[in-house]
Amino acid sequence: MRRKTALIMILFMAVSAFTACGDKICSSVQQAGGMVAGTDEMLAADNVVEEGITPIYGSSIKDGVYSIDAASSSSMFKITKCILTVENGKMTAEMTMSAKGYLYIYMGTGEEAVSSDESRYISFAEKDGAHTFTVPVEALDMGIACAAFSKNKEKWYDRTLCFKADSLPLTAFSDGTVTTAESLALEDGEYTVALIFEGGSGKSYIESPALLSVENGKATAKLTWSSPNYDYMIVDGEKYLQVNTEGNSVFEIPVAAFDRKLPVIGNTTSMSKPHEIEYTLYFDSTTINKK
Fold first, then answer.
1. 210 and 163 in a common domain
2. Residue among 197, 199, 260, 263 nearest 54 (CA)
3. Hey, which residues does 125 pair with through a beta bridge?
4. ∠ Cα 208 209 210 (to 5°)
5. Residue 258 has what DSSP assignment?
6. Which residues on neighbouring strands pair with residue 81, listed in sequence order?
7. Selection from 75, 91, 46 nearest residue 83 by Cα
8. What's the average pLDDT block by block, 10 residues per block, for the chain (291 residues)?
9. Rounded to an integer, what distance in angstroms lies between the CA atom of residue 152 and that of residue 195?
10. Is 180 within the bounds of a domain?
Protein backbone atom coordinates (compact mmCIF):
# COMPACT_ATOMS: atom_id res chain seq x y z
CA MET A 1 0.00 0.00 0.00
CA ARG A 2 2.84 2.36 0.93
CA ARG A 3 4.61 1.62 -2.36
CA LYS A 4 1.41 2.36 -4.28
CA THR A 5 0.91 5.62 -2.42
CA ALA A 6 4.52 6.65 -3.04
CA LEU A 7 4.16 5.90 -6.76
CA ILE A 8 1.03 8.02 -6.96
CA MET A 9 2.84 10.90 -5.24
CA ILE A 10 5.77 10.68 -7.66
CA LEU A 11 3.42 10.73 -10.66
CA PHE A 12 1.52 13.67 -9.19
CA MET A 13 4.69 15.67 -8.65
CA ALA A 14 5.95 14.91 -12.15
CA VAL A 15 2.69 16.06 -13.74
CA SER A 16 2.68 19.18 -11.58
CA ALA A 17 6.24 20.06 -12.57
CA PHE A 18 5.38 19.62 -16.24
CA THR A 19 2.15 21.62 -16.26
CA ALA A 20 2.97 24.31 -13.74
CA CYS A 21 6.18 25.76 -15.14
CA GLY A 22 5.71 28.81 -13.02
CA ASP A 23 6.29 31.56 -15.56
CA LYS A 24 4.36 33.19 -18.37
CA ILE A 25 6.36 31.60 -21.17
CA CYS A 26 5.64 27.98 -20.26
CA SER A 27 1.93 28.36 -19.55
CA SER A 28 1.22 30.71 -22.43
CA VAL A 29 3.09 28.57 -24.95
CA GLN A 30 0.70 25.78 -24.10
CA GLN A 31 -2.26 28.14 -24.56
CA ALA A 32 -0.83 29.52 -27.80
CA GLY A 33 -1.36 26.23 -29.54
CA GLY A 34 -5.05 26.86 -29.56
CA MET A 35 -6.74 29.84 -31.06
CA VAL A 36 -6.53 32.45 -33.79
CA ALA A 37 -8.64 35.59 -33.59
CA GLY A 38 -11.22 35.92 -36.33
CA THR A 39 -11.76 39.02 -38.44
CA ASP A 40 -14.80 39.88 -36.32
CA GLU A 41 -12.50 40.10 -33.30
CA MET A 42 -10.08 42.57 -34.88
CA LEU A 43 -10.25 46.18 -35.99
CA ALA A 44 -10.13 46.81 -39.71
CA ALA A 45 -6.52 46.48 -40.88
CA ASP A 46 -4.68 49.56 -42.12
CA ASN A 47 -2.86 49.36 -45.44
CA VAL A 48 0.78 49.89 -44.53
CA VAL A 49 2.35 49.30 -47.97
CA GLU A 50 2.14 51.99 -50.63
CA GLU A 51 0.93 50.84 -54.02
CA GLY A 52 3.63 50.38 -56.64
CA ILE A 53 6.52 50.67 -54.21
CA THR A 54 9.54 48.39 -54.75
CA PRO A 55 10.94 46.34 -51.85
CA ILE A 56 14.52 47.10 -50.81
CA TYR A 57 16.59 44.17 -49.58
CA GLY A 58 19.48 44.10 -47.16
CA SER A 59 22.05 43.91 -49.94
CA SER A 60 21.10 47.50 -50.85
CA ILE A 61 21.74 48.86 -47.36
CA LYS A 62 25.16 49.48 -45.87
CA ASP A 63 26.06 47.64 -42.68
CA GLY A 64 25.10 49.69 -39.65
CA VAL A 65 22.49 50.52 -37.05
CA TYR A 66 19.70 52.92 -38.04
CA SER A 67 16.55 54.42 -36.63
CA ILE A 68 13.68 53.52 -38.97
CA ASP A 69 9.94 54.11 -39.14
CA ALA A 70 7.93 50.91 -38.77
CA ALA A 71 4.21 50.70 -39.52
CA SER A 72 1.74 48.13 -38.20
CA SER A 73 -1.60 47.28 -39.77
CA SER A 74 -3.28 47.50 -36.35
CA SER A 75 -3.49 50.35 -33.88
CA MET A 76 -3.60 47.65 -31.20
CA PHE A 77 -0.03 46.67 -32.14
CA LYS A 78 1.62 50.08 -32.09
CA ILE A 79 5.36 50.47 -32.58
CA THR A 80 6.75 53.56 -30.88
CA LYS A 81 10.41 53.12 -31.84
CA CYS A 82 12.35 50.86 -34.17
CA ILE A 83 16.06 50.22 -34.63
CA LEU A 84 17.26 48.48 -37.79
CA THR A 85 20.52 46.53 -37.76
CA VAL A 86 22.13 45.53 -41.06
CA GLU A 87 25.05 43.12 -41.24
CA ASN A 88 26.27 41.32 -44.35
CA GLY A 89 22.97 41.87 -46.13
CA LYS A 90 20.86 40.52 -43.26
CA MET A 91 18.45 42.82 -41.45
CA THR A 92 16.83 42.67 -38.03
CA ALA A 93 14.61 45.20 -36.30
CA GLU A 94 14.15 45.85 -32.60
CA MET A 95 10.59 47.12 -32.20
CA THR A 96 9.58 48.96 -29.03
CA MET A 97 5.88 48.52 -28.34
CA SER A 98 3.47 51.05 -26.89
CA ALA A 99 2.01 48.49 -24.45
CA LYS A 100 2.71 45.11 -22.87
CA GLY A 101 -0.28 43.14 -24.11
CA TYR A 102 1.61 40.63 -26.28
CA LEU A 103 3.87 37.87 -25.03
CA TYR A 104 5.46 36.84 -28.32
CA ILE A 105 5.12 37.08 -32.04
CA TYR A 106 5.52 34.69 -34.93
CA MET A 107 6.78 35.68 -38.37
CA GLY A 108 3.88 34.38 -40.42
CA THR A 109 0.15 34.01 -39.93
CA GLY A 110 -1.72 33.01 -36.82
CA GLU A 111 -2.72 29.71 -38.41
CA GLU A 112 0.93 28.97 -39.12
CA ALA A 113 1.85 29.92 -35.56
CA VAL A 114 -0.63 27.42 -34.11
CA SER A 115 0.93 24.54 -36.01
CA SER A 116 4.53 25.74 -35.63
CA ASP A 117 7.11 24.56 -33.18
CA GLU A 118 7.24 26.90 -30.20
CA SER A 119 10.97 27.45 -30.74
CA ARG A 120 9.99 29.77 -33.59
CA TYR A 121 8.01 32.07 -31.29
CA ILE A 122 9.80 35.36 -30.60
CA SER A 123 9.49 36.36 -26.95
CA PHE A 124 9.50 39.92 -25.75
CA ALA A 125 12.41 41.53 -23.95
CA GLU A 126 12.11 44.19 -21.28
CA LYS A 127 14.00 47.39 -22.12
CA ASP A 128 13.64 50.74 -20.36
CA GLY A 129 10.30 49.63 -18.95
CA ALA A 130 8.83 48.69 -22.34
CA HIS A 131 8.36 45.45 -24.28
CA THR A 132 10.56 45.00 -27.34
CA PHE A 133 10.60 42.32 -30.03
CA THR A 134 13.58 41.71 -32.28
CA VAL A 135 12.49 40.28 -35.63
CA PRO A 136 14.10 39.35 -38.94
CA VAL A 137 13.34 41.76 -41.78
CA GLU A 138 13.16 40.26 -45.25
CA ALA A 139 12.92 43.60 -47.01
CA LEU A 140 12.02 47.23 -46.48
CA ASP A 141 8.92 48.76 -48.12
CA MET A 142 7.27 45.34 -48.20
CA GLY A 143 4.36 43.94 -46.21
CA ILE A 144 5.64 41.32 -43.74
CA ALA A 145 3.13 39.01 -42.09
CA CYS A 146 3.37 38.41 -38.38
CA ALA A 147 1.06 37.10 -35.68
CA ALA A 148 1.01 38.48 -32.15
CA PHE A 149 -0.12 36.40 -29.17
CA SER A 150 -2.31 38.35 -26.75
CA LYS A 151 -1.62 37.80 -23.06
CA ASN A 152 -5.22 38.61 -22.06
CA LYS A 153 -7.16 37.07 -24.95
CA GLU A 154 -4.84 34.07 -25.29
CA LYS A 155 -5.21 34.21 -29.07
CA TRP A 156 -3.03 34.92 -32.09
CA TYR A 157 -3.80 38.15 -33.95
CA ASP A 158 -2.67 38.58 -37.56
CA ARG A 159 -0.73 41.76 -38.29
CA THR A 160 1.26 43.20 -41.20
CA LEU A 161 4.48 45.11 -40.67
CA CYS A 162 6.26 47.48 -43.04
CA PHE A 163 9.66 49.03 -42.42
CA LYS A 164 9.93 52.33 -44.30
CA ALA A 165 13.05 52.81 -46.43
CA ASP A 166 12.39 56.51 -46.93
CA SER A 167 12.95 57.11 -43.21
CA LEU A 168 16.61 56.04 -43.55
CA PRO A 169 19.28 58.62 -44.34
CA LEU A 170 20.49 58.62 -47.94
CA THR A 171 23.95 57.66 -46.69
CA ALA A 172 22.55 54.30 -45.54
CA PHE A 173 22.05 53.05 -49.10
CA SER A 174 24.61 51.24 -51.19
CA ASP A 175 25.89 52.97 -54.31
CA GLY A 176 23.41 52.80 -57.16
CA THR A 177 20.39 52.12 -54.94
CA VAL A 178 19.07 55.69 -54.79
CA THR A 179 17.92 57.46 -57.95
CA THR A 180 19.82 60.73 -58.41
CA ALA A 181 20.41 63.22 -61.19
CA GLU A 182 23.77 61.57 -61.73
CA SER A 183 22.36 58.03 -61.93
CA LEU A 184 19.74 59.28 -64.38
CA ALA A 185 22.57 60.80 -66.48
CA LEU A 186 20.76 64.13 -66.65
CA GLU A 187 22.69 66.67 -68.67
CA ASP A 188 23.19 70.18 -67.40
CA GLY A 189 20.12 72.26 -68.13
CA GLU A 190 16.54 73.13 -67.19
CA TYR A 191 13.78 70.55 -66.71
CA THR A 192 10.36 70.18 -65.19
CA VAL A 193 9.39 67.43 -62.77
CA ALA A 194 6.13 66.42 -61.10
CA LEU A 195 6.13 66.25 -57.33
CA ILE A 196 3.84 64.82 -54.69
CA PHE A 197 3.44 67.04 -51.65
CA GLU A 198 2.28 65.69 -48.28
CA GLY A 199 1.95 67.10 -44.78
CA GLY A 200 0.49 70.00 -42.91
CA SER A 201 -3.19 70.83 -42.69
CA GLY A 202 -3.78 70.71 -46.44
CA LYS A 203 -4.41 74.44 -46.73
CA SER A 204 -1.04 75.16 -48.34
CA TYR A 205 0.84 73.19 -50.96
CA ILE A 206 3.72 73.39 -53.42
CA GLU A 207 2.86 73.69 -57.08
CA SER A 208 3.55 70.80 -59.45
CA PRO A 209 5.34 70.45 -61.80
CA ALA A 210 8.37 72.26 -60.43
CA LEU A 211 11.31 73.71 -62.28
CA LEU A 212 14.43 71.53 -62.01
CA SER A 213 17.96 72.75 -62.71
CA VAL A 214 20.86 70.33 -63.18
CA GLU A 215 24.51 71.29 -62.99
CA ASN A 216 27.47 68.91 -62.70
CA GLY A 217 25.20 66.02 -61.72
CA LYS A 218 23.44 67.98 -58.95
CA ALA A 219 19.74 68.84 -59.10
CA THR A 220 18.02 71.91 -57.65
CA ALA A 221 14.26 72.41 -57.56
CA LYS A 222 12.58 75.80 -57.70
CA LEU A 223 9.49 75.46 -55.53
CA THR A 224 6.51 77.79 -55.56
CA TRP A 225 4.11 77.66 -52.62
CA SER A 226 0.40 78.38 -52.81
CA SER A 227 0.91 80.95 -50.05
CA PRO A 228 3.16 84.01 -49.52
CA ASN A 229 3.56 83.15 -45.83
CA TYR A 230 6.64 80.93 -45.84
CA ASP A 231 9.96 82.61 -45.09
CA TYR A 232 12.34 79.64 -44.95
CA MET A 233 12.62 75.90 -45.54
CA ILE A 234 14.93 73.34 -43.94
CA VAL A 235 16.32 70.45 -45.99
CA ASP A 236 18.82 67.96 -44.52
CA GLY A 237 19.46 70.35 -41.65
CA GLU A 238 20.25 73.32 -43.92
CA LYS A 239 18.09 76.47 -43.93
CA TYR A 240 17.05 77.96 -47.28
CA LEU A 241 15.53 81.44 -47.45
CA GLN A 242 12.90 82.41 -49.98
CA VAL A 243 14.35 83.85 -53.17
CA ASN A 244 11.55 86.32 -53.98
CA THR A 245 10.13 89.38 -52.24
CA GLU A 246 6.66 89.56 -53.82
CA GLY A 247 3.92 87.04 -54.44
CA ASN A 248 3.78 83.47 -53.20
CA SER A 249 6.89 82.13 -51.49
CA VAL A 250 9.54 80.65 -53.78
CA PHE A 251 12.53 78.55 -52.71
CA GLU A 252 15.42 76.81 -54.41
CA ILE A 253 16.40 73.59 -52.65
CA PRO A 254 18.63 70.62 -53.53
CA VAL A 255 17.02 67.39 -54.72
CA ALA A 256 19.21 64.68 -53.25
CA ALA A 257 17.09 61.83 -54.63
CA PHE A 258 14.13 61.05 -56.83
CA ASP A 259 11.39 58.45 -56.37
CA ARG A 260 11.40 58.57 -52.57
CA LYS A 261 9.84 60.84 -49.98
CA LEU A 262 12.20 63.59 -48.89
CA PRO A 263 11.45 65.22 -45.52
CA VAL A 264 11.47 69.01 -45.45
CA ILE A 265 10.35 71.73 -43.06
CA GLY A 266 8.53 74.89 -44.01
CA ASN A 267 8.28 77.86 -41.63
CA THR A 268 4.92 79.62 -41.90
CA THR A 269 4.25 83.13 -40.66
CA SER A 270 0.49 82.93 -41.18
CA MET A 271 -0.19 81.99 -37.55
CA SER A 272 0.03 84.23 -34.49
CA LYS A 273 3.60 83.00 -34.11
CA PRO A 274 5.93 81.56 -36.80
CA HIS A 275 5.60 77.79 -36.88
CA GLU A 276 7.77 75.09 -38.48
CA ILE A 277 5.72 72.37 -40.21
CA GLU A 278 7.00 69.01 -41.47
CA TYR A 279 6.27 67.95 -45.06
CA THR A 280 7.50 65.39 -47.55
CA LEU A 281 8.27 65.89 -51.23
CA TYR A 282 8.37 63.07 -53.78
CA PHE A 283 10.01 63.97 -57.11
CA ASP A 284 8.91 61.48 -59.79
CA SER A 285 11.82 60.74 -62.12
CA THR A 286 9.49 59.35 -64.80
CA THR A 287 8.00 62.84 -65.29
CA ILE A 288 11.27 64.70 -65.91
CA ASN A 289 11.07 66.69 -69.15
CA LYS A 290 13.70 68.97 -70.64
CA LYS A 291 12.57 72.54 -71.21
1. no
2. 260
3. 132
4. 100
5. B
6. 96
7. 91
8. 44 41 44 71 83 91 98 96 98 98 96 94 96 98 96 95 95 93 96 96 94 97 97 96 97 96 95 93 97 89
9. 46
10. no
